[in-house]
């Protein structure tokens, strides 16, 4: 496998091939949710560009409940996971670069996957690949709709 020729390069020489971690996280998240289990995401809280509630960090890690019923506006991209969640009754915006994801598993039975911490060591994305990785985008306030009821009382 390590000597597959692609043009003039071998597979082992290609460093822009994307890591499997984001795909595995999305697949396991879906499997856990489909089985009515609770997906937990273990995150390296010391990694760069992690935006999490630091008061819940233990031993440099945090475990986040990322169940659809516990989060809002979930977005799982190839370079980051972003969602809003409540901590102590306060809504917070969470940003986790995929490089900081240590594992994803079901709370109820611990089935899931933990990842090789060195997976991203030799990964160098191409220049034309979205360069948003490793940085939460600057917060652009979304236009809020007026909180008007959608129903009218008819007489």
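^ Assign residues to that structure.
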């Amino acid at each position: 496998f390590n000597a597959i020729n692609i043009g003039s390069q071998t597979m082992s020489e290609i460093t822009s091939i994307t890591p499997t971690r984001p795909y595995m996280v999305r697949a396991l998240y879906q499997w856990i949710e489909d089985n009515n289990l609770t997906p937990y995401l273990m995150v390296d809280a010391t990694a760069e560009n992690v935006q999490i509630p630091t008061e819940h960090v233990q031993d440099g890690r945090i475990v986040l409940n990322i169940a659809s019923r516990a989060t809002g506006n979930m977005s799982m991209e190839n370079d980051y996971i972003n969602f809003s969640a409540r901590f102590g009754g306060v809504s917070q915006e969470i940003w986790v670069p995929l490089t900081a994801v240590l594992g994803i598993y079901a709370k109820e039975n611990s089935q899931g996957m933990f990842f090789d911490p060195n997976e991203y060591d030799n990964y160098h994305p191409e220049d034309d690949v979205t360069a948003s990785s490793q940085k939460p985008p600057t917060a652009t306030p979304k236009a809020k709709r007026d909180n008007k009821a959608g129903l009218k009382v008819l007489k």
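Residues 16 and 128 are 11 Å apart (CA to CA).
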